[in-house]
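Throughout our pipeline, every protein is held as a single compact record rather than as scattered files. Such a record has a labelled line for the sequence and another for the backbone structure tokens. This encoding replaces a full spatial description with a residue-level series of whole-number codes. For reference, a complete record is included directly beneath this paragraph.
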Amino acid sequence: MTINISGAPCCWGVDDPKNPYLPDWKDVLKEAHLAGFTGVETGPYGYLPLDTSVLKEELEKNELTIVAGTIFDDLVSEANLPNLLQQVEAICSLITQMPQEQAGDNQKFKTPYLIVIDWGHDERDYAAGHPDQAQRLSNKAWGNMISHITQIAKKAAQEYGVRAVVHPHAGGYIEFSDEILKLTEDIPYEVAGLCLDTGHLLYSKMDPIEWLEKLYHRVDYIHFKDIDIDVYRQVMNKKIRFFDACAENVMCPIGEGVIDYKEIYELLAVKLKYEGFITIEQERDPRNAGSSLADVKKSVAFLEELGFNK
């Protein structure tokens, strides 16, 4: 049984493709290889080049596969649906032409995945991590979002053979326990799976071990991150956007934070027999990307010592 460790550009501060401080994409791929990753995500739409030959050459040079592409956008607004469907076409047509890791015998769906994340709402961004303060969508707006996710997932599957996985994300309209459970009621597993993120679960007041087990029947792919509990307590007492909290280093190398990854290994590898990919993430300000390689190396080494990627 193999649980492969992969990485994501957010470890280098790549969350907004328009951020003027982003590191060069070639440097990110080079450092991903140096960190020991076998695969990477594309990160936000528009960061990696959409030219298949250019990207494929660089991936092969660094012995990397593509694990997933990401739609990180407003899933609620009806006016944004054409943009979302255009992203499905652009992302899926790219990632399906990139090098892939062979699927494990017990892997639920083969890579690459299409990660679907709701984002772009100030009122929720400032309420990230506060389930008692965050406003919820109206029934109509929620229905719009469910319809949009369904259309995204069906287009990805039917036209490209790509499995869509919905990622509950701090600061979006799919964040808290009530929203995640409602999502699983409204979208059948046949349509889309889940990508659960240990750090986002904890940030949003959920026990990642409990929720990984509770929703494992819906989980196709997993993100790992860790949280500095002292910084977390500080940012929870501020009116602060999620990525501004990340810029204050609320996320830390895996093994240096509060999440019990030894227990997570026992749950995933021993009890649930998970086989597939976990992706390390450590969001940060891209101006601090100089320490990214050292941090992700720490995370990889810690997880490998526990038994991941064996």
Q: What stands out?
A: The chain has one domain: 3-306.
